[in-house]
């Protein structure tokens, strides 16, 4: 009886751990996506600013 209870406990633990792992992977993926978007936006703004500055210098 105790062995069967331990087996059930271990199986339940594996399912909970798997669900938590999947949630962490999903959260991490979403966070990476947000960071990537913010980095791309910052690069775009920097490129535009650099272009505008070079145009101002060229027109002087």
Structure commentary:
The structure is a single chain. With about 60 residues, this protein is mostly helical. The protein has a domain of about 35 residues. It contains 1 helix and no strands. It starts with a helix and ends with a helix.
Features:
60 residues, mainly alpha, 1 helix, 97% helix, 0% strand
Q: What is this entry, summarized?
A:
97% of the residues lie in helices and 0% in strands.
Number of strands: 0
Measured as a percent range, the helix fraction is: over 70%
In angstroms, what separates the terminal alpha carbons? 88 Å
| Strand composition percent | under 5%
The overall pLDDT, averaged over residues, is 92
Class by alpha and beta content = mainly alpha
What does the main sheet amount to? none
Tally of individual helices? 1
Radius of gyration, CA atoms, in whole angstroms: 26 Å
Question: Any chance you could write out the topology, listing elements then pairs?
Answer:
Blueprint: H1 2-59
